[in-house]
Amino acid sequence: MSQYQNRAIVLKQRPNGEIQEGDLVMEERSVRSPEEGEVVAQILWLSLDPYMRPRMNDAKGYMDPIKIDEPIVGESVARVVESRSDKLKVGDLVTCYSGWQEYVTFPADAPMVYKIHQKDGVPLQTYLGVAGMPGRTGYCGLTYLGKPKSGETVVVSAASGPVGTVVGQTAKTNGCRVVGVAGGPEKCSYVVDELGFDACVDYKAGNLEADLKAACPDGIDIYYENVGGDVTRAVAPLLNAGARVPICGFVSAYNAKSTDNVETPFDILKRLDPVPEHRFFLVTEWQDKHQEITDILTSRIASGRSNTVKRLLKASKTQLRPSKAC
Questions:
Q1: Which pTM does this prediction carry?
Q2: Which of 36, 169, 247, 255 has its CA 20 to 30 A from that of 138?
Q3: Vertex 118 angle, CA 89 and 37, to 5°
Q4: d(CA 277, CA 222)
Q5: Per-residue DSSP letters for 37-104?
Q6: How many Å apart are CA 225 and CA 161, to the nearest integer?
């Protein structure tokens, strides 16, 4: 076994609705010594993303459920501390799907392992946020499915998060009017004043339908779906002919105790006449563009064109305090 003391957050029992104490626990886990072609990496930053919650359920989805007693899934930024590979050397920084633990052993050529070529002015944690999987998800869903055109109105829910941030700012670079939906006046002010959206509707204010209609006087051409539920129901009547709806997720349903009575965005959209163009997607559909899009997003941050770093440094990702080696 390796010399490193490892702690992991593991799934002990499947949540029933909201996560409760005892569903997740911290345990010490051994670290396997690397074989030929493998490396050991120390996790520096952990990702916390909405898709993790449904994967705690015992239900087949687009990805397999997390197994009981296995670490919570998740991408991380890690530093190589042992190497038996020519592809990665000690000290290299990578993004990898390590799960929630302090150390991990994996083949250097494993899928979804990417060496970080860090740029000045781009903090490491942004490679899990606006310059990482969430950012690429926002960019790809809008660019390749939304296909924004100058003068169109784009609405994005969960606008203050890394996906919504990239959707909105990418739409602005395409000459669109951009309206965010977020919860609370602080988030809405951030979306408009710092991210540069044209408007942001507070779904907690109690006037969602009227406020959204006022913010979109010419209707909605692209709705980037992150939330579902009441937001989708408010958006649906405002969709213009030819509207496109990339569906990233619908987080409002992720803590439901049963999926039997959950009204999904697909249910809402298919009741419209005409039915707008819409589909669920995964960012891995454009995996061949991983480095190209990462370079686009990191260049925006480094040049100051993506005004997201201050907030994300405070709230969006979790840094690990490394344990001491034995």
A1: 0.85
A2: 255
A3: 20
A4: 10
A5: TEEEEEEEEE---GGGTGGGSSS--SSPPPPTTSBPP--EEEEEEEE--SSS-TT-EEEE---SBSEE
A6: 13
Q: What are phi and psi of 122, to 5 degrees?
A: -115, 100
- Residue 21 sits at the vertex; the CA angle it makes with 18 and 25, to the nearest 5 degrees, is 115
Annotate 178-238 with DSSP letters as a single string. Answer: EEEEESSHHHHHHHHHTT--SEEEETTSS-HHHHHHHH-TT-EEEEEBSS-HHHHHHHGGG
C-alpha 221/C-alpha 145 separation (Å) is 12
- Rounded Cα–Cα distance for residues 202 and 98 (Å): 36
Residue type, 52: M
| Residues 13-28: tens digit of each pLDDT | 898 888 889 999 999 9
pLDDT at 1: 59
Q: What pLDDT digit, counting tens, does each position of 45-84 carry? A: 998 877 778 788 887 666 788 899 999 988 999 999 999 9
Cα–Cα distance for residue pair 114/257, rounded to 1 Å: 36
Question: Residue 250 class from Cβ within 10 Å (0-12 exposed, 13-18 middle, 19+ buried)?
Answer: buried
Residue 142 φ/ψ region, left for φ over 0, alpha for ψ in the -120 to 50 degree band, beta for the rest: alpha
Structure tokens at 168: 């909105």
Half-sphere exposure of residue 242, counting CA atoms within 13 Å on the CB side? 6
Farthest-apart Cα atoms in the chain, separation: 65
